[in-house]
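Okay, is this right?
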Amino acid sequence: MRLTETYERAQAEFDRRVRRIGDGQWSAPTPCTEWSVRELVNHLTAEQLWAPHLLRGETLAEVGDRYDGDVLGEDPVAVWERAARDAREAFAAPGALDGTVHTSGGLTPAEEYARQMTLDLTVHAWDLARGIAADDRLDRDVAASVYGFVEPQIEGWQDLGIFDPPVEVAGDAPVQDRLVALLGRDPAW
């Protein structure tokens, strides 16, 4: 599967859950213990808002603080939809993944950035599904791709405090369970 296709499918997984959020669910907790449903959607929406800028070569300083705080406003679903569309178009643009982007970790190959964005969309789609008590089944191919990307480097990311320590699951558990457990989430949450 092409990287842009994996990204788009991961984004569709998150989008499907955003569209299912009921009025009373925006303040519900998620397995990502720092964030409520709204805070989780805000985080992913801000990431999507950043993507077109970074893929055009803008620096963090040039983007500035415009996406700090609450980016969702009064119509969170509509803001998410616009941000997702613009990010999808930016990632699909010819040559978008050929260069480097400025990230908080320094200059990063655009393909690596796309993989990181895909990872975030995938794990947070699961978080969001659990937070709103929706179907949490992820696209198996996307989960397998993300697991293959994350597994070899998880220790370094945990050392940075990006993810909680892994949760134990059986070695023959479905790839989705192994992925969320690797990222510090209890598949039974």
